[in-house]
């Protein structure tokens, strides 16, 4: 029995598809098992369903059948009587329901629709076609659409067709096939890096519009150099998918002029039932008016509960930032908000506008704001902080402020706002190269003293000027975070000293519920592991600590240092529950 299974596995692994001879071998093996409905195995359904699946799925199925056969034999031996028939095992149905069909389903050399039993087709509800980088042309895309149209009960479809040579007419063919699937509820299509610019592709969404029950739509169209009028028409047609609850649209590295954004805005604003929207338009040369259209569209989707807006690498200034923020601020039902505006042209006034609108997000529980590499400045972050103080329901806050020169004034105001968020449990704060000095560290530490409910805290203050006093100030704040379970802290290149780092470890010893610590510190004061490791000995009071990682910046650890670390790691085994200790 086992030898036969191994032979079949070897034969399958050596072939790109499964031949009829191998199927007969498996059927002969199956004939030794007493099934109540063995006639199902005698039909072509078993053969065809195997042909449609990849080799790993077939191997797993064969092994499952082997296990059932062995159980039958054991039963015979233990009871010394003829085994009862196993529970009916409908192989064809099992394969259809347990696995997503692979690309083999769409290769004409392997599969013929004329042979396929209608009963098997009717069982297909979920289908995945993965043909990335497969040199597909428009004709192939149209054929896939035709074959999809022959599956009447399809409700969940995933097409991974990126990095091919499909033109606009091929996308239209896909849309026509998808449009026949009236039971479709969830649809994912990735056509990134194709040739959709050649020909009209808006017919894709026209076909999708015919799926009257569609609730979840994901369209990935990156790097296609689409014509601007096509994008406008595409956006308008998108607005006809009236039953959508979730929309994910990604068009990165695609130039979007004002009229293109207008078309997208018109379409999105018509989707009144949207609860979740993810709009990924990074590096699209979007200017003020384009951002304005996006903001107005978001404002009209009044039922939104979750929004992810990725506009990194565009040319958005003050007015554009204001309109985007206003669109979000006027949605009172929003619970989770992610806005990414990294490397735009937003200055202090834009930060003020963002802060004013954030004050309206009073029902939000999660907020992520990425303003890296703009010019917000101290006044801009102060306005944003004032807005944050009104978000009283926040449980998670993620602020990416690198390269914004917020200075100590800005960090201090941010600390005051955070200290007023009584339900905040997760704080992620990046302030790399923000011109923060020791006053900022001390003031922020004072605010941390009031954040007694924090469970996860990640802070990056690399390349500032906290100095010894600023680091110690942060430590005093951490001492009061008694509910803290995870800390990630980067204070490299801050002119700290051995004394300040020792003080920081001592403060952490008061966080007795902490489980994970990842800390990056300057190595200039720790040329010997015998100096560094005793400093962390105070953490023995943290009885739940199971992961501790100390990263030393810009340091090449020699053999002597490695030997010292081995000794110190052995000493660290005395820590209660500590199961992982890493250096660098």
From TrEMBL:
Gene Ontology molecular functions: GTPase activator activity
Q: Check the record and name the PANTHER family matching this protein.
A: RAN GTPASE-ACTIVATING PROTEIN 1 (PTHR46761:SF2)
Q: What is this protein called?
A: Kinase domain protein
């Amino acid at each position: 029995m086992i030898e036969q299974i191994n032979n079949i596995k070897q034969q399958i692994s050596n072939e790109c598809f499964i031949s009829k001879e191998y199927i007969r071998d498996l059927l002969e093996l199956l004939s030794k098992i007493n099934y109540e409905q063995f006639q199902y195995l005698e039909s072509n359904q078993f053969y065809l369903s195997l042909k449609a699946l990849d080799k790993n799925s077939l191997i797993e199925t064969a092994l499952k059948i082997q296990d059932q056969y062995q159980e039958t034999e054991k039963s015979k031996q233990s009871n010394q009587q003829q085994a009862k028939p196993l529970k009916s095992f409908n192989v064809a149905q099992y394969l259809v329901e347990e696995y997503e069909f692979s690309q083999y389903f769409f290769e004409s050399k392997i599969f013929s629709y004329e042979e396929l039993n209608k009963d098997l087709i009717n069982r297909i509800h979920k289908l995945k076609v993965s043909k990335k980088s497969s040199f597909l042309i428009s004709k192939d895309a149209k054929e896939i659409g035709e074959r999809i149209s022959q599956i009447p009960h399809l409700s969940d479809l995933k097409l991974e067709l990126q990095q091919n040579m499909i033109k606009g007419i091929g996308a239209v063919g896909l849309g026509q096939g998808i449009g026949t699937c009236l039971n479709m509820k969830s649809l994912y299509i990735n056509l990134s890096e194709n040739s959709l610019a050649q020909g009209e592709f808006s017919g894709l969404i026209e076909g999708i519009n015919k799926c009257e029950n569609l609730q979840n739509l994901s369209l990935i169209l990156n790097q296609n150099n689409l014509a601007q009028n096509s994008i406008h028409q595409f956006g308008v047609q998108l607005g006809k998918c009236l039953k959508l609850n979730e929309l994910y649209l990604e068009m990165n590295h695609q130039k979007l002029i004002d009229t293109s954004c207008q078309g997208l805005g018109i379409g999105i604003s018509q989707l009144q039932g949207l609860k979740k929207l993810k709009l990924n338009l990074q590096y699209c040369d979007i200017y003020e008016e384009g951002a304005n259209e996006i903001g107005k569209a978001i404002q009209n989707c009044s039922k939104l509960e979750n929004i992810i807006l990725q506009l990194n690498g565009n040319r958005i200034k003050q007015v554009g930032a204001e309109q985007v923020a206003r669109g979000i601020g006027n949605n009172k039902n929003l619970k989770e908000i992610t806005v990414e505006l990294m490397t735009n042209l937003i200055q202090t006034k834009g930060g003020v506008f963002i802060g004013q609108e954030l004050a309206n997000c009073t029902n939000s529980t999660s907020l992520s704001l990425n303003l890296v590499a703009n010019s917000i400045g101290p006044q801009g972050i102060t306005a944003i902080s004032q807005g944050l103080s009104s978000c009283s329901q926040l449980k998670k806050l993620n602020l990416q402020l690198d390269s914004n020169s917020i200075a100590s004034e800005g960090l201090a105001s941010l600390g005051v706002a955070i200290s007023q968020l009584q339900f905040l449990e997760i704080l992620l704060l990046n302030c790399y190269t923000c011109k923060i000095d020791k006053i900022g560290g001390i003031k922020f530490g004072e605010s941390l003293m009031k954040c007694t409910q924090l469970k996860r805290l990640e802070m990056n203050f690399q390349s500032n000027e906290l100095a010894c006093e600023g680091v110690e100030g942060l430590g005093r704040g951490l001492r009061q975070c008694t509910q803290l379970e995870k800390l990630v802290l980067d204070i490299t290149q801050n002119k700290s000293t051995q004394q300040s780092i020792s003080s920081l470890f001592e403060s952490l010893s008061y966080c007795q519920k902490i489980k994970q610590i990842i800390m990056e510190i300057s190595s200039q004061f720790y040329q010997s592991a015998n100096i560094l490791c005793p400093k962390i000995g105070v953490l023995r009071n943290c009885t739940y600590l199971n992961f501790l990682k100390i990263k030393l910046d810009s340091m090449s650890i020699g053999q002597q240092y490695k030997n010292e670390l081995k000794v110190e790691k052995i000493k660290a085994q005395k820590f209660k529950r500590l199961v992982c200790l890493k250096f660098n």
